[in-house]
Amino acid sequence: MKIVLASQSPRRKELLGKMGLEFTTKAPEIDETALSGLPARQLVEALSREKALWAARQEDPEAIVIGSDTVVVRDGEILGKPASPAQAEEMLAALSGRSHEVCTGITVCQGDRVVSQVEVTQVTFRHLTPQEIARYVRTGEPMDKAGAYGIQGLGALLVEGIQGDYSAVVGLPVCRLGRMLLDFGVDCLALSAGREEDAL
Asked: What distance in Å separates the CA atoms of residue 67 and residue 32, rounded to the nearest whole number?
């Protein structure tokens, strides 16, 4: 069974690979600004669906296609990727010493069947000094990340606590996706165990 990830994100590819799946990737070509007025949870669900459906149209109808989208939300405001180092510093200062939500939409589709869900995780930052924020921004890591940080990298030094799915903050809610794939007949554990047995 062919599995396609509608993303070129190295973080999502790594997470999906750790689920024991063999898959190909396809970068979706969609206009994300067309949905920009939606609330965060609706936005990530809609964008994950649009990405998956776009990729599905390029594939065999039997292929299982996975789409995902993640945003950082503080006090109802969506924090996207910073446009400049100065904006990255502003975002990090706004997150300092506070909790915020990371909303990740996930869609699995095969033929006419489309299932979308949303995973919400609460992340709490420790208090950051202006000097720490400036040093982190100088590493370059925040510039391609929603909310201006990457929890899987140096951004972990900023995070005091997390409630929910860590992998969803990285960009792909592994536990939820595994359950969704089961409903499509894909058992990640069984596939991995089968490959291990074949290797013996």
From this structure: 13
